[in-house]
């Protein structure tokens, strides 16, 4: 029986106070015994009359709670959510329906303050921050129009023999007569002599004059005009890493990367709005106070601003500081950072150098991401979700090179919790569970608001978790939370009832396709390839849950089975492991499964391939036992024989009978390619025929059901059954059982084999849907502004957009829950009430991809 709750509180346990049960028991006791006994054939058992009284008691409990909270509900700070519309109606507030509870509460609380400062720039910035929760800077574009000065304009001091004193220059800038960063006169010619100020052109801190733009304002177009107001919104979050272990650069003593995986990532500034906030002493924030990539010019200017006699071009605000608020370098365990003068920083690539006497070191820094997903230093709790208790005993360990994590894991005896208390890198782990001592209930997690980093040596094997043994009830439970695992796979063996990964990053790797010459994997600063880490299922898992995770491929092998994969608010990425021509041993993902198929020869293709194998390879295939480990030499022999097959024409319709081959691939094969093109086509044909064994896939699950909710899948996928909602499938997805399941409010790639689709859109494979597909960059998996131009077709009346195609009008994919389109729409509605008449807002998301520090070229980067 469901328990009624107060309006606006459905789905929460906020009122678990026992009022419902007490009222129901009292009403039942007041009922005459003759009616109680006649209500059910079971003594004191539930019957229709008791059910009716229980429902009446639920409403009595609601009334009781309302009476108890009458005082609290008179204040907007303490009232229940359901009271907000009534308070808004009393104030005449235009309460926007698409706002969440936080935004609506701020809207009602600040209504009078809004009206007092209606039409001012300070109000417009405060309104944007209250409605969206993002940092904002508002620019009146008419002030940046180039024009001829007239007699009513104030005089601007001309160059003299002696430079103007700093106070005079500051007064002119505060009066709007000159630019604060460049000294450019209002409406006049640009002063390009100050590199930092000149680098702020075409942005929220631009001080140069522009010609009028009569186009409609949208994104990066149509800015400069009299009726236009630019609203620059910093949607990405700058996440603060307190302590991390840097990675030494190979061949450069004393050089390190800030990122613990060895990537060269752009550092970000810590947000620091002026102390006055949005009150009467409001001032618009400066460039160094916004959460955005930290550029070399910005860092140099801020660093020299506080020095005696700052040189020309230094940042003019003496309060500006990045050290140690945004980044710092420490001695191990030291509270105070090293002096800034001892450290040379290249912020755009996340590198720094210290003297040879300073070793080892720890770092603190900020990095950017569109939302809080994956392993990160943020609060992982969710409103309304109960805290999962830790199984006992609980062991707390720190990271670092003292290998505290490995013995703690080895000490787990089937049940327990290991908590990583800091963000330093652990370089070794131990298997958890074994066939003789399997897991019953184990949790490995990072402390709240901490990211636990595990980066073992490249020669270490996978991290193995072993559940119950063969024939036993698969009741083992495993939970991983807040961990960043780089350069190592996870292997699940035995039986598990539930495996949960929450706020974890299983490093998906970084392709080296952008290098010159191209490589399969991008090397880190320590010359170690940034290979993908995978989740391998070699046992039986009833439920595998991914919650707010970033992972590499999730695959089955050696007869492993996942009955249900539930992924929400996550990114799953699969990258090629070779150049796509000749087959390699690394591309044989399931040797046991491939040898089974060739041994049993249940299809024309496997029979034909078996006949092309050499005598030794064929004998090894025929002698293979299910589940037996395949020697590396046998895999190499099989790969060599298959490469001989790939060098010749492979396609034949009868040979591939029963295999679902995309028509585009059939057309390429029938065109009779030669050379490397033939190798690539034949490799694709084999991968299509044997997806679990040979396909580069983000998801490769032969059994069970895959449930995706607000997910982004980067790469091809293979599943038996699929249920997907508000997701982006950036790669061909092949589903074997298309009679069951559904794809709702999602984007899918052409050539996919899918169940029925509802309000979904089709895109071409490889379309430029995202700002970046490279893990570690701030725009990773973030939808590009032009994403809707990639739509090929759609189903349903409202399915023509990826950016606003979810069921509530938000974007599809992993960042759907952040509701960026809904927040922008709500802000535009509120601006109709508080903007001066005749002005039009132009919303500009920041940082803009074309100005991201990671896309800059021609810099004096540090040596590799």
Radius of gyration: 31 Å
Strand sequence of the main sheet, in spatial order?
Answer: 10-11-13-16-19-24-27-30-33-36-38
Percent in strands: 15-25%
Structural class: alpha/beta
**pLDDT < 50 runs, ≥5 residues:** 1-13, 850-860
The helix count comes to 19
- Tell me the total number of β-strands: 41
Q: What summary fits the major beta sheet?
A: 11 strands, parallel
Mean pLDDT: 87
Into which percent range does the helicity of residues fall?
A: 10-25%
What is the subunit organization of this protein? single chain
Ends apart, CA distance between termini? 66 Å
Assign an overall shape: globular
Write the layout of secondary structure elements.
Elements (H helix, E strand, L loop, with lengths): L18 H12 L2 H6 L9 H21 L15 H8 L9 H9 L1 H6 L4 H12 L2 E6 L25 H9 L20 H4 L29 E7 L2 E8 L2 E2 L6 E3 L38 H10 L22 E3 L13 E3 L4 E3 L8 E8 L24 E4 L7 H6 L4 E6 L4 E2 L14 E6 L5 E3 L8 E4 L9 E6 L1 E3 L4 E4 L1 E8 L2 E2 L4 E2 L6 E3 L13 E3 L2 E8 L2 E2 L2 E3 L4 E8 L2 E3 L17 H10 L3 H8 L3 H8 L9 H15 L16 H8 L4 H15 L1 H4 L4 E2 L4 E5 L2 E3 L2 E3 L1 E5 L2 E3 L2 E3 L6 E3 L2 E3 L6 E3 L2 E3 L27 E4 L25 H15 L5 E7 L18
Parallel strand pairs: 2-41, 10-11, 11-13, 12-14, 13-16, 14-17, 15-18, 16-19, 17-20, 18-23, 19-24, 23-26, 24-27, 25-28, 26-29, 27-30, 28-31, 29-32, 30-33, 31-34, 32-35, 33-36, 36-38, 37-39
Antiparallel strand pairs: 1-2, 3-9, 4-5, 5-8, 6-9, 7-8, 21-22, 39-40
Helix pairs in contact: 1-3, 5-7, 7-19, 12-13
Name the features:
single chain; alpha/beta; eleven-stranded parallel sheet; 864 residues
Give a written overview of the molecule.
With 864 residues, this protein is α/β, with parallel strands linked by helices. Among the domains are: 19-68, no CATH class; 394-577, no CATH class; 585-694, no CATH class. The chain has 19 helices and 41 strands. Strands 10-11-13-16-19-24-27-30-33-36-38 form an eleven-stranded parallel beta sheet. The chain has a seven-stranded parallel beta sheet with strand order 15-18-23-26-29-32-35, with no helix packed on it. Strands 4-5-8-7 form a four-stranded antiparallel beta sheet, with no helix packed on it. A hairpin with a 6-residue loop joins strand 4 (247-248) and strand 5. Helix 5 packs antiparallel against helix 7 and helix 7 packs antiparallel against helix 19 (820-834). The longest helix is centred in the first third of the chain and has 21 residues, at 48-68. It is globular.
């Amino acid at each position: 029986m469901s328990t009624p709750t107060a309006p606006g509180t459905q789905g929460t346990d906020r009122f678990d106070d026992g009022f419902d049960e007490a009222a129901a028991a009292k009403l039942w006791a007041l009922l005459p015994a003759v009616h109680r006994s006649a209500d059910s054939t079971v003594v004191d058992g539930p019957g229709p009359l008791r059910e009716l009284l229980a429902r009446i008691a639920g409403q009595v409990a609601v009334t009781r709670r309302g009476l108890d909270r009458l005082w609290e509900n008179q204040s907007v700070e303490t009232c229940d959510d359901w009271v907000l519309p009534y308070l808004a109606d009393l104030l005449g507030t235009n309460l926007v329906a698409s706002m969440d509870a936080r935004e609506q509460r701020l809207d009602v609380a600040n209504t009078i303050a809004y009206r007092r400062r209606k039409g001012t720039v300070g109000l417009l910035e405060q309104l944007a921050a209250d409605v969206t929760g993002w940092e904002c800077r508002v620019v009146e574009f008419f002030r940046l129009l180039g024009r001829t000065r007239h007699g009513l304009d104030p005089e601007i001091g001309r160059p003299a023999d002696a430079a103007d004193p700093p106070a005079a220059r500051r007064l002119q800038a505060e009066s709007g007569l000159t630019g604060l960063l460049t000294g450019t006169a209002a409406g006049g010619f640009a002063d390009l002599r100050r590199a930092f100020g000149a680098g702020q052109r075409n942005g929220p801190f631009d001080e140069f004059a522009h010609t009028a733009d009569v186009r409609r304002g949208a994104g990066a177009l149509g800015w400069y005009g009299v009726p236009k107001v630019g609203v620059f919104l910093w949607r990405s979050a700058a996440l603060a890493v307190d302590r991390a272990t840097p990675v030494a650069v190979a061949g450069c003593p004393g050089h390190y990367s800030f990122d613990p995986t060895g990537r060269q990532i752009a550092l970000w500034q810590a947000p620091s709005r002026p102390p006055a906030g949005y009150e009467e002493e409001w001032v618009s924030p400066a460039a160094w106070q916004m959460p955005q990539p930290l550029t070399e010019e910005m860092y140099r200017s801020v660093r020299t601003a506080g020095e005696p006699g700052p040189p020309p071009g230094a940042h003019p605000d003496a309060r500006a500081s990045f050290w140690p608020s945004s980044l710092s370098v420490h001695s191990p365990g030291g509270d105070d950072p090293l002096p800034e003068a001892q450290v040379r920083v290249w912020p755009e690539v996340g590198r720094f150098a210290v003297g040879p006497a300073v070793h080892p070191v720890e770092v603190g820094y900020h990095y950017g991401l569109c939302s809080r997903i994956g392993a990160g230093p943020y609060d992982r709790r969710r409103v309304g979700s109960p805290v999962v208790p830790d199984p006992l005993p609980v062991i707390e360990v720190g990271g670092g090179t003292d290998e505290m994590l490995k013995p703690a894991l080895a000490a787990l005896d089937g049940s327990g919790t290991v908590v990583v208390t800091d963000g330093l890198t652990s370089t070794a782990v131990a298997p958890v569970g074994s066939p003789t001592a399997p897991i019953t209930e184990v949790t490995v997690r990072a402390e709240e608001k901490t990211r636990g980093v595990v980066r073992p040596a490249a020669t270490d094997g996978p991290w193995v978790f072993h559940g119950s043994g063969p024939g036993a009830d698969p009741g083992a439970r495993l939970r991983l939370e807040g961990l960043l695992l780089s350069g190592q796979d996870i292997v699940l063996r035995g039986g598990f009832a539930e495996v949960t990964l929450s706020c974890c990053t299983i490093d998906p790797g970084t392709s080296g396709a952008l290098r010159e010459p191209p490589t399969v994997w991008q090397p880190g600063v320590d010359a170690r390839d940034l290979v993908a880490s995978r989740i391998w299922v070699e046992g039986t898992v009833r439920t595998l849950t991914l919650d707010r995770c970033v992972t590499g491929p999730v695959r089955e092998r050696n007869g492993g089975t996942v009955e249900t994969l539930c992924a929400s608010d996550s990114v799953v990425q699969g990258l090629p492991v070779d150049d796509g021509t000749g087959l390699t041993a690394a591309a044989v993902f399931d040797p046991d499964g491939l040898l089974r198929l060739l041994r049993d020869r249940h299809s024309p293709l496997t029979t034909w391939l078996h006949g092309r194998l050499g005598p030794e390879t064929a004998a090894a295939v025929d002698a293979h036992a299910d589940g037996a480990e395949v020697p590396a030499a046998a895999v190499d022999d099989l790969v060599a024989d298959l490469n001989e097959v790939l060098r010749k024409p492979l396609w034949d319709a009868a040979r591939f009978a029963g295999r679902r081959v995309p028509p585009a691939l059939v057309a390429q094969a029938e065109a009779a390619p030669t050379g490397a093109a033939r190798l690539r086509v034949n490799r694709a044909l084999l991968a299509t025929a044997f997806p679990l064994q040979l396909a580069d896939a983000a998801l490769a699950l032969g059994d069970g059901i895959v449930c995706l909710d607000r997910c982004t899948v980067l790469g091809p996928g293979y599943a038996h059954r699929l249920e997907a909602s508000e997701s982006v499938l950036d790669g061909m997805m092949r589903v074997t059982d298309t009679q069951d399941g559904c794809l709702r409010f999602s984007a899918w790639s052409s050539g996919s084999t899918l169940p029925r689709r509802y309000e979904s859109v089709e895109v071409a494979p490889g379309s430029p849907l995202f700002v970046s597909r490279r893990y570690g960059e701030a725009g990773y998996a973030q939808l590009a502004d032009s994403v809707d131009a990639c739509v090929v077709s759609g189903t349903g009346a409202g399915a023509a957009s990826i950016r606003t195609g979810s069921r509530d009008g938000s974007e599809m994919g992993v960042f759907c829950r952040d509701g960026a389109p809904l927040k922008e729409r709500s802000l535009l509605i509120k601006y109709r009430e508080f903007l001066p008449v005749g002005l039009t807002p132009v919303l500009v998301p920041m940082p803009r991809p074309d100005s991201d520090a990671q896309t800059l070229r021609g810099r004096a980067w540090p040596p590799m």
